[in-house]
Specification:
The chain is of the alpha/beta class. The longest helix is centred in the C-terminal third of the chain and has 16 residues. The protein starts with 6 loop residues before the first helix and ends with a helix. The relative contact order is 0.14.
């Protein structure tokens, strides 16, 4: 069954689960998710005075890591869930956060040097539109870090069984765990996601897998202008 990713339904779900979102992440990742995010952020090697946009920032893990490890960069976190942003602000009192939709990012073209999105693209109904918006707000040669579930291997199936057990134990939240399971199973492989980014004008730079490939990070780069016209615009001519 295909996941229902109606934006209003997804927003409502995240508003509801925000209060226990971090605890669940620790539980289902066996405490590894924050370390994985740290390793991914370090791969970006963000330059001083850079502008960074953390999309679908949730409770602000990427934002916090960027602020801590690259203090001379300016990072802004956006999410469409007010409850998630409230928790992000509590975790990052000095952080800058804005309620916004990734398919209609409220910033100008080429305003950011880096963008990050962790476990968020999977929840967006119109994925091509979100990727196109990320391309738009990145400067030429800007870098994108995408992190989410990876290959559907044996360890991934063990994770599925674990989440299925959670559905039975926590019956009140069963629908949310069921959504997590379905969205994970339906999400494209890392190679397919890379292809989707390339179709919108990005160039593949590197891929880093974690937990035997069940989690995967890809770093993409916005292609520079060609003959005075963005590569992203050329494909529509």
């Amino acid at each position: 069954m295909t996941c229902d990713k109606n934006p209003e339904k997804i927003k409502s779900m995240f508003e509801e689960i925000a209060i226990y979102y971090d605890k669940v992440n620790n539980l289902i990742s066996f405490g590894t998710h924050y370390l994985i995010k740290y390793l991914c952020v370090k791969e970006l090697n963000i330059k001083p005075r850079s502008m960074v946009l953390d999309l679908c920032c949730g409770t602000g893990d990427f934002t916090k890591l960027i602020n801590k490890n690259f203090p001379r960069a300016k990072v802004i976190g956006i999410d469409f869930s007010a409850n998630m942003l409230k928790l992000a602000k509590e975790k990052n009192p000095k952080g800058v956060f804005l309620q916004a939709d990734c398919t209609a990012i409220p910033f100008s073209e080429r305003e950011f040097n880096y963008a990050t999105i962790g476990f968020g693209l999977r929840n967006i109904e119109n994925r091509p539109k979100a990727i196109s918006e990320i391309y738009r707000i990145l400067d030429n040669d800007g870098m994108l870090l995408h992190l989410d579930f990876g290959n559907h291997n044996k360890l991934s199936k063990i994770f599925d069984v674990f989440v299925s057990l959670l559905c039975k134990i926590f019956k009140d939240s069963a629908q949310h765990y069921e959504y997590l399971l379905k969205s994970k199973q339906e999400f494209p492989t890392p190679e397919e996601i890379i292809s989707e980014f390339e179709q919108e004008g990005f160039k593949f730079i590197s891929k880093k897998d974690f937990l035997f490939g069940t989690i995967s990070a890809q770093i993409m780069q916005k292609k520079p202008k060609q003959l005075g016209i963005d590569a992203h615009l050329l494909k529509h001519l």
